Amino acid sequence: MIKKVLIAFLTISSLSSAQAQATQDDPGADLIVVNAKIFTGNRAQPEASGLAVKKGRIYSVGSDAEILSLKNSKTQVIDAHNRRIIPGIVDAHTHVLNDMAYNYNVRWDGVPTLRRALTMLSEQAARTPEGQWVKVIGGWSPFQFKENRFPTLDELRKAVPNRPMIVQYAYNRAFLNKRAMEALGVGTDRFQKLPDIEIEKDGRGNPTGVIHGYTWLFLALETMVPQPTFDEQVSSMIYSVHGLNRFGVTSIVDNGGRWPYPEAQARVDVLARDNRLNVRMPFVDLQLGNGGPVNMVDLEVEAITKKAPVSPGQNLHPALPHGHEYRGAGEVLSGEVHDHENFDRPAVIIDPEKMRRFVEQDVMKLVQRRIPFRMHISYNENISPFLDALEKMSESIPLDGLRWSLEHAETISPENIARVKKLGGGIALDAKMALHGDAFIKTYSREKALETPRLRTLVDSGIPLAMTTDAFRAATFNPWVGISWMVSGKSVSGTEVLAKDNRLSRTEALQLFTRRAAWFMNADSEIGVIAPGNLADLAVLDRDYFDVPEDQIKSVTSVLTIMNGKVVFGAQDYRALSPQLPAILPAWSPVKFFGSYFGEK
Length: 601
Description:
The chain has 18 helices and 23 strands. Helix 3 (114-127) runs parallel beside helix 4 (153-159), helix 10 (352-368) packs across helix 11 (380-396) and helix 13 packs across helix 16 (479-488). Helices cover 32% and strands 17% of the residues. By secondary structure, it is of the alpha/beta class. Strand 10 and strand 11 (173-176) form a beta hairpin. The protein folds into two domains: 101-227, Roll (Diaminopimelate Epimerase, Chain A, domain 1); 230-528, Metal-dependent hydrolases (TIM Barrel), CATH 3.20.20. The longest helix is centred in the N-terminal third of the chain and has 23 residues, at 2-24. InterPro entries: Amidohydro_3, Metal-dep_hydrolase_composite, Metal_Hydrolase. It comes from Stigmatella aurantiaca. This is Amidohydrolase 3 domain-containing protein.
């Protein structure tokens, strides 16, 4: 009797185990895409027509017949209709967490005429409630307009007569109407006194409403206007990420801002909890303090070791690979050695002795604790003393494989490129020359612009390298504007700003936003290439990037964006597949009426 019971138990256990194994190893793909022109980025298999996805990763890449043989009754099959597919775009330096008021802003990104931009302001002024501001905060350039100029104060005041208004151009200047000047106390003792501010005045000595300055001015101004509620901040993140997905962006590195760790992460947690974090978002952290001189590195160490302990590489959203990993400190590590990047003005040159002390006293703390770091330096005159000090420090405290990078590095020399590479660092460039190259020419010369940055030398050096947007304020979040500039050599105005021998092929330019950019996420073995085993991030484009005329590259968008094997954005034929967005907050948001980028609505 005991023997029969034992046999029956073993039989049931075997059946249960077999059923569990069958469920676990259920053959077939979760998602299949066929009838495509796939640029894989994989040199061993550069082209294909189909791919299969299983559990968030690429399962197989090959011909339509090969891929369709992996279909089962539950597989979702998508026909690409002979469209071009690329790996999901990686923006290795952007600032989503710095723009929690995204939904409050009129986005002039991509608007083709100043006339239309002013009309947008006028329309928004009519719906903005009392107590709120009409705002345009970055992402645009006067050189993108057909009129090829800034708006005048009279034009802006006519567009917005009855609400406070601020129109901010990068981190260079702001235009204010009378109500905004009164609210901020411009021209009085109430207005914050920050270094290097220039307030334009009329013939009578009264402020006109135009203010010139650097980063700190505009961060301060942002704290002086109405702030979004917590729910509005979460909504802003949802819609800014949606804007990224529209261009095929599936991964970013958030590069710090006025919302430090762990405060900013409470907003990300809401998206993660509701499965709405539709982009991989590793982050580096910037601790600005509460005003006044602070040691940002000390604040960073305090935040990650005591306030809310977290380790480099730790994923705060582990359900999503590389979902919200802590990737170290930066991009600003000290206000005293921050050289900004205002192309309307001459370069900010830092005292070499001050740079040396900063490396010896502060960067050393990060290296000793194995905290990765990213250092904002725009100009070669400042890169040289930084590398001098870093080389000296590494003799006694070796970097020893610690990932670090220079951010922006617009005018870096070939010699300093080689030094960064020898020290194991990377360089995260940005595409601001695409928007602001015309201003750079006026300040420095056309000859200097043509070699800024040294794209060909950088690519050929083999150094870890990415092109980024540095959105949402310093430049537009549309990566295709930067890709267009790298390939054509032209700014948004059509001006030649890159020499012919300093431009990249279409493949090289795209790789700086895909395969090569993945290094900055510590994900270069599984992101940026469409290959079996890699994470299933890809974009189906509205036109073939590799075949369209150069002047159309900046207009490329995605019609289907897939991140981690799920559809996060759909348009045209795939609109029904797009996840439904929650109602935007606030209800009067400019993004609700204009979209996040011109042409979306």
